[in-house]
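Structure (tokenized):
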């Protein structure tokens, strides 16, 4: 296993990605695009489909060639892909300077699975456009054909909702455990568990050191990651996460150490926290500001917690009582929906947040915000049916925002899409798409 790339014995053929359309549109007008995300999500496969020249900078011999002869970027046929550019940080500045010198649209593609710490790298603002690639969304996994478009919900027209599928709850949860990493999802169950375990081991044992943070106590980092996984889809404080990672221990990692954990894990795109919504058009007061905790893929959280399909179906909790916030299965399902919605929202040029009042008495799982500040609100419920209680916070938010609330839906593990009499949409997760 090279780095923490995950390679199955039989690699799947290329799975079309939602980001493909974004890339195809952007390369016609931008000279340099950086496709970023965790290792194994498919950045290289997506970028290589568009590249005429490929420089694999995770290979020492190719780094040496570029270091010895930077002018080869001017001689190479475009589009030029600089894969894993962070292994040779000067590559970023070489591209930036080429853009300043008038590089044509579509000349450079960069892929990166980490942001170097302390490297003298210019931000690239105005020169290199960053584009995030996350693990496969539910619609990209091909279990059902989406019938409800997030873009349509964002129109404010409150479209009619329809459609159904026949995928069972066990099959949906098995898809969650299979992960959105293409090579892992294509593997047999035992192989994919081994691939995910190896991925996590490599992060702890190798990737930290490559970013200049060798881990003195790997078991402490692994325990912190496990506690973070147990806090999936909550706003649990980092102090409580540390307490859960080190119950009864006097020799706890220092706060500076755990802050470094978070910084490096976010630079590796392994943590993908969901920020809280701060409205620009409304005077809602006393809103919580803490992010919701999410790993890059809920399958990683399940592996860290040691839960499989039987445990998820039985709704068992991990052995971290200090972090129990209701049903683990429901929170992992919310994380899967969040991963998917963030991909769809990016395609629609929108941002994704969560909403929570300061005291936690009102919460909405996801808010997708247009550039004008108007939003679509989404609650996530594992149950296939939706009660009046389930939509209470959506009705409250509608009363607060008025016409700034474009639409409100509940995303479920059910099989049928429809609108309730109160106008709230009910959309199965497998039927929601971009």
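Design, position by position:
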């Amino acid at each position: 296993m090279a780095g923490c790339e995950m390679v199955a014995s039989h690699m799947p053929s290329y799975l079309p990605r939602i980001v493909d359309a974004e890339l195809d549109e952007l390369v016609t007008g931008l000279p340099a695009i950086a496709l970023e995300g965790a290792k194994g999500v498919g950045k290289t496969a997506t970028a290589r489909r568009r590249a005429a020249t490929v420089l694999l900078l995770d290979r020492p011999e190719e780094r040496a060639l570029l270091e010895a002869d930077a002018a080869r970027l001017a001689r190479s046929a475009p589009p030029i892909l600089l894969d894993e550019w962070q292994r040779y940080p000067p590559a970023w500045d070489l591209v930036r300077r080429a853009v300043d010198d008038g590089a044509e649209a579509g000349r450079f593609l960069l892929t990166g699975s980490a942001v170097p710490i302390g490297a003298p790298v210019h931000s690239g603002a105005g020169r290199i456009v960053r584009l995030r690639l996350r693990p496969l969304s539910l619609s990209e996994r091909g279990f059902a054909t989406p019938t409800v478009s997030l873009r349509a919900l964002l129109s404010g027209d409150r479209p009619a909702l329809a459609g159904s599928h026949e995928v069972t709850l066990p099959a949906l949860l098995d898809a969650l455990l299979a992960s959105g990493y293409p090579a892992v999802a294509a593997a047999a169950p035992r192989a994919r568990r081994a691939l995910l375990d190896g991925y996590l081991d490599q992060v702890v044992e190798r990737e930290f050191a490559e970013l200049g943070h060798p881990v003195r106590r790997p078991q402490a980092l692994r325990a912190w990651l496990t506690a973070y996984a147990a806090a999936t889809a909550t706003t649990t404080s980092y102090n409580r996460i540390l307490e859960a990672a080190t119950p009864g221990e006097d020799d706890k990692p220092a706060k500076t150490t755990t802050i470094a954990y978070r910084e490096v894990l976010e630079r590796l795109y392994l943590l993908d926290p969901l920020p809280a919504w701060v409205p620009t058009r409304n005077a809602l007061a006393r809103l919580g500001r803490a992010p919701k905790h999410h790993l890059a893929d809920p399958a990683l959280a399940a592996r860290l917690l040691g839960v499989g399909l039987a445990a998820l179906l039985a709704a068992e909790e991990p052995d971290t009582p200090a972090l129990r916030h209701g049903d683990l299965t429901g929170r992992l399902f919310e994380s899967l929906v969040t991963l998917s919605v963030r991909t769809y929202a990016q395609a629609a040029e929108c941002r994704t947040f969560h909403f929570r009042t300061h005291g936690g008495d009102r919460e909405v799982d996801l808010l997708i915000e247009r550039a004008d500040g108007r939003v679509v609100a989404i609650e996530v419920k594992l149950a296939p049916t939706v009660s009046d209680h389930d939509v209470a916070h959506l009705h409250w938010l509608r009363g607060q925002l008025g016409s700034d609330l474009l639409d409100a839906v509940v995303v479920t593990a059910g099989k049928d899409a429809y609108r309730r009499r109160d106008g709230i949409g009910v959309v199965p997760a497998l039927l929601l798409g971009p």
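Reviewer-requested clarification: The radius of gyration is 22 Å. The longest strand covers residues 405-412.
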